[in-house]
Design goal:
Radius of gyration: 21 Å
Strand order of the largest sheet: 5-4-6-1-7-8-2-9
Shape: globular
Strand content: 5-15%
Number of helices: 13
Distance between the termini: 55 Å
Number of strands: 14
């Protein structure tokens, strides 16, 4: 078998259910839909951590954040742990990176700044408006003052670089990572919702112009003290000095629904750029020889349990899209609702399809066996890590998701556990951790997590710290 080219597309802060192909009726994602229709899309797909740098570390190394040494944002991967570029370049691939890195710098500028990759040059320019991007017009409207990391139009610049690379007859086989920034700009919408480069949600008029609140909008009645503590913190990440969640305290129903509208439009925006990447692959004549993988570093809370942005272990912040397409090699039009998948599985899966030897000791598993034979059981569980404070590293959370249940535990505070039956309660509205009749299920999940922490040298322990 000829080794495929690989194009890995990473979005930022995109929860799983945002793609129309996953059942979303509010977003317009024709290009992600096309990608999903051409391959396998996993429904039970999770990030390793609902925070940018830790989630990205797992995507590029196949290791959990605590193993990679990236528990919080803006840290480098620990020395001695190879990333995807190093693994594939050692195997003879041309390896190229375009866009956000965040390990530690968000956007390194030097060509050799990212180990194992050529960091392709891209430049910011005068930006088009949101409306122009959605209409396919990228002509500039003039210089505008920007936040340092505002990505609404920056994604067009990153995509330009990727398209130039693909149009330049790259040496095959190649691995190209296209790391886009949206829909992460919802963070900036929350703190400055009237910025010129952000989607404008209706401020008045009928409420039916706006998305409905989710059915699980209300907080769980018996949330752990740890979760309530995080809600009250003015700075969940103290060294950053601010936390988007605190801006939502005074929101009424319209404001929450405007936030959902803005997030949907940001998903629409990133879909436009993904479409340009897919067109460039086709125009280069390499579509049939290229495996395309789409995922995100973590999800977005989208108002579930009155939460906004990330940094929590509920389904919406920890679930992400995961789509794999390789014409003729990966089955088309398969929506996998059964098998668990994680960001740590991307490295071993891509290595498996490319005939590249994966490093020993990865936390992830190749998804190719369950793609080839859907009757296989696949992995028994996935884990996600939560590290809300870089200044108080003893405060941690863990999620362990088995095929039916989801267990959440925290290192501090009263009532530090949650258990949900995701078959009967997919919206996570009833915490079964203290419920009669579920003692054995809870004990089984406690034991699984304890065994996993021992196996991976994870320092997490339930109730070991003080808030």
């Amino acid at each position: 078998m000829t080794r495929p080219n690989v194009v890995l597309i990473i979005t930022d802060q995109q929860t799983r259910a945002t793609i129309s192909a996953y059942g979303n009726q509010r977003t317009r994602t024709p290009h992600m839909d096309t990608l999903a229709a051409g391959g396998v899309a996993f429904e039970k797909s999770y990030c390793s951590s609902p925070l940018c740098s830790p989630g990205r570390a797992s995507i590029v190394t196949g290791q959990m954040p605590h193993t990679a040494g990236v528990d919080v944002n803006d840290l480098p991967v620990r020395d001695g742990i190879a990333n995807l570029g190093e693994i594939f370049s050692d195997a003879g691939y041309e390896t190229v990176w375009a866009g956000k890195w965040n390990l530690p710098e968000s956007f390194p500028t030097e060509p050799d700044a990212i180990p194992g990759f050529e960091n392709v040059e891209w430049q910011r320019r005068p930006y088009p408006s949101v409306e122009q991007i959605l209409a396919g017009d990228s002509s500039p409207v003039g210089e505008q003052e920007l936040y340092r990391d505002l990505g609404t139009s920056m994604d067009a610049d990153i995509t330009d670089a990727a398209v130039r690379y693909l149009a330049g007859a790259p040496r095959e086989p190649f691995l190209l990572a296209v790391s886009l920034y949206n829909p992460h700009d919802i963070c900036f919408w929350i703190i400055d919702r009237d910025h010129d480069l952000l989607p404008r949600a209706p401020t008045d008029g009928p409420l039916d112009e706006l998305p409905d609140l989710p059915d699980n909008f209300d907080a769980v009645a018996d949330e752990p003290e740890f979760v309530r503590w995080m809600r009250k913190q003015e700075a969940v990440i103290p060294d950053f000095g601010w936390n988007e969640l605190r801006w939502t305290d005074s929101w009424d129903e319209r404001h929450w629904r405007r936030y959902l509208y803005a997030y949907d439009r940001l998903v629409d925006l990133v879909d436009v750029q993904i479409g340009r990447v897919l067109s460039a692959i086709s125009d280069a004549g390499v579509q049939d020889s290229t495996l395309v993988a789409l995922t995100s570093d973590h999800g977005e809370a989208v108002a579930a349990h009155r939460w906004a942005t990330k940094q929590m272990l509920y389904e919406e912040p920890v679930t992400v899209p995961l789509v794999l397409r390789w014409p003729g090699e990966i089955p088309a039009q398969r929506f996998d609702r059964s098998h668990l998948a994680s960001g740590v599985d991307i490295v071993p899966t891509l290595c498996d399809y490319a005939g590249v030897t994966a490093p020993d000791g990865l936390a992830g598993e190749s998804l190719r066996p369950v793609i080839d034979d859907p009757t296989l059981a696949g992995r028994d569980f996935v884990v996600a890590e939560l590290q809300p404070s870089a200044l108080r590293m003893e405060l941690k959370g863990r999620m362990l998701r088995t095929r039916r249940y989801k267990y959440m535990a925290f290192s501090a505070g009263a009532d530090a556990e949650m258990l949900f039956d995701l078959e009967s309660d997919p919206l996570e509205t009833v915490n079964l951790a203290g419920s009669a009749g579920h003692e054995s299920v809870l004990a089984d999940h406690r034991a699984l997590l304890a065994a996993w922490t021992r196996l991976t040298d994870d320092p997490f322990e339930v109730g070991s710290a003080v808030l």
